[in-house]
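User: Fold this, then the next.

Assistant: Folding the first:
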Amino acid sequence: MNIIEIILSPVIALLMGLFFLGLARKIMARIHWRYGPPIYQPIIDIIRLFSQKAMSHGFIFEMGIILSLAGSFLVILFLPIGIMCPLSTGGGLLVILYVMLLGPLGIALSGGEAANPNTSIGISRKFILALCYEVPLLLIILAVITHYNTISIVEIVNRQSMSGWSFGSLPLLLSGIAYLLILPAILGIRPFEVVGAAQEISSGPSVEYGGKYLAFNTIEHGLNEFIGIALFVNLFLGGGDLFGIFASFVDTVLESILGVIVFLVKMIIVFVIGLFINAVYPRFRIEQAVKYIWVWPTLLAFVGLIIVIIVH
């Protein structure tokens, strides 16, 4: 069963990540009164890119994007998808925090080998943005760990099936709001679309990618969006559980399927809310992004942590 989960979890994450990319283009087109491309357009693009000739800038250029992809796939194995979690005993939230850093690091190594000025600017923005949201994210995760007295994300999800979602819990309410405020930065959408701003730096870190490398970068982007939303759903919306009602009347197999479906529906709802923010707000400059994240989300996350410590 664990082998099946190891195979299924990355496949589900990959398909959902590409679905998010297609859904984003479709919804944004509708908001702009356009028809837009089909939702499955990212899959068509990836197939087309793999059939094109690609130019490499060296060994580090190739291995950087592979490192980024490997880090994303590894994080997914630690994240519960419904009741599936292949590496549920592998260290929990602390390991997830460390491995999440492989994504930006791999892109930086790959882009740095290309030696393109636009790439360098995009990479510096990516690291600055990552440094900004990692501070409130760490405070948020510390609050959740303190409240549930465990670093196991699986245990945190299971506790919510008995006591209710963390987002509805008063001690963790501010932490949940803080996560929602930094979620666009994690996903790289407006108003935090500074890393790949095509109007300024010609798509930044991915400007030198072509063919299979651009396909890998697209896949990594989709996986990053899946990870950011999946972490929020697991920490604050009970994962794939719907207030524990499934376990009382269904068998294990059906419970697994329903849990995955509920989990993905929650992710879609959160993603669509983020898209509405993306459609309304203009893009921040990098210094505006830093100021915003280190004021409001960080302040809310810090106050939320203090409240959890006092209540706990």
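Now the next one, as you asked:
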Amino acid sequence: MAGAKEIILSGSGGQGLITAGIILAEAAILDGKNAIQTQSYGPEARGGKSRAEVIVSSDDIDYPKVTAPDAVLAMTGEACSAYAPKLKRGGVLLVDTTYVTEPPATKASVVSYPYSRVAREELGQEMVANIIALGALAAATGVVSRESLLAALLKRVPKGTEELNRQALELGWRTAGPPAASVRSE
């Protein structure tokens, strides 16, 4: 990985995006990289805007906020509209097609997958949609290793949910590219 990678994980409160951002930053540290994670969310306990920003670099990180993301994960249509236009040319946009029906035109590669629906239907818990999407984001960007991501995940999830979360992460890793996901680049 050359240079810093800037990532935004966005959606609504209750989708676990802050937790996913923390796990991603911890995985980067386990990989021996520098990482900064910041977060923003609305005053609502659930349903308000939620965003985690993660910067990963082999070098020092001079500024703690994402200015031009290399990757955006959008779990809602509102999040997609807000952050997809900020993507760098050649970046990666991951959208949850359960809640994002029309991703905007972009110069980024787009990975579309119904993370929330698949979490609900295949794993029986929509609450792990964030982990499926996190696995897909890591696989699509290569920002952290699979091993470090799994280790960081297992340190953060509630006791008794380790196997469910492991399955969600593996499912997400597999969905990052064809044929499981729709990938396009304009």
